[in-house]
Amino acid sequence: MAEAQTTLRESISDSTKDAMRSKDSLRVSTLRLVSAAIKDRDIAARSEDRCDGIDEPEILSLLAKMVKQREESAKTYEENGRPELAERERSEIEIVREFMPKALSEDEMKVAIAVIVEDTGATCLKDMGKIMGRLKGEYAGRLDMGKAGAIVKDHLTG
Q1: Fewer beta carbons below 10 Å: N end or C end of the chain?
Q2: Domains of the chain by range and CATH?
Q3: What's the DSSP call for residue 52?
């Protein structure tokens, strides 16, 4: 296994143990959910003949997905008059984000996209998949793919 992969997995595991020692039940349950999601993906990866499980970019992508799910849940809870549940979702988001690299700002995203467009020689919307694939690989967990897609589209059509 790659050293960075081990480091992220160990970091999550160590944080879970620390949360258990300090009896922080929200943190323990959130980190256990993260660990379970990683293990599920590892099992799926092994069925694809990837014995080491998922790599760090895939873990970061998984964390980003978990954050997005919780943001949507928090919004739904707010809309349905359940602020205490929305607050719990937001607390879980903060815990998950501790293991993610700093997100790119919109300006940083535009620069990254411009560089990839130039590198790939992309000129039209047909090339969008190629650009999105590179973004997902190089900036996993650091950008909102929905926003990135809109920026790529503007870049290629503008």
Answers
A1: C
A2: 3-97 (1.10.1510.10), 106-157 (1.10.10.410)
A3: T
